[in-house]
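Backbones bend. Our protein:
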Amino acid sequence: MKQKFFSKEEFNEVGHGGIEQYGAMSYKPGFAINPLKFLLGIANAAKNAGVKIFQKSKVIKIEKSKGKFIIISNGSIIKANKVVMATNGFYKDDIFPKLNNMILPVISNIIITRPLTTEEIKSHNFITNNPVLNIRNLLFYYRLLKDNRFLFGARGDLVGSEKSSLEKSKNMELQMKKVFPNWNNVNIDFHWRGLIAITTKFSPSIGKIEDDEIYYSFGYQANGVNTAPWSGNELAKLIVSNSKNLNISKLYKGLPSKFPFPKLRLFYLKLVLAYYKYMDKN
């Protein structure tokens, strides 16, 4: 990995200006992609290889009978010799009891502006299309898209309702315009949210449940776009081989420990967010 450091003035020449710009560090290789196009490309490759893909097939329960897994979905029953639990923040406890209480789902929100004019872009000298994130504890991540819309992301709301999502998006708009004050009159055209997965070990977990044909890959800690495909590739090697070992770092092997008093997971999150919010102000 190649790293380079920039002073405030140097980053203004290659990146952007703004009231929270005090310099930067870049590393290569690294680039931005459209995650939906990437997902569709992977799905198309899988389909061409003979994989059957079913949408809107929520798994309600998984049982085991005569050495086979019985997967009960909404309206369907599937039998399988092996099962893979590959997800991020969308896992529901009790599907695999041995994996219960290991994931803390956290909401992440994104807003997208209308296309910026050339003058608006120049007002903050935003000349890079590389993704940028700051060093706040509750960090902002953002980038200029090809059609000159501006993508701005941050930690999401704690409730999960449509109302709280809209309120969080409005708050993020204020945060974005505080960092980039010359865009105060720029409207927001789109907003959405998704779940990331936090675990107690703060790294992906990849492996196989002992004495069972259940494989897992989860806990991407807000880096799912790049980490999940890599994890899937490594997990596939384990599934199709007779070896029980993964040739990856020990950091990623095995399950994380369970959250203590798991019903308090949301309370833990609120405490951590309150602390980080305080630290970011000081």
The radius of gyration is 21 Å. Residues 2-30+105-198 form a domain with the D-Amino Acid Oxidase; Chain A, domain 2 fold (CATH 3.30.9.10). The chain has six helices and 13 strands. The chain has a mean pLDDT of 91.
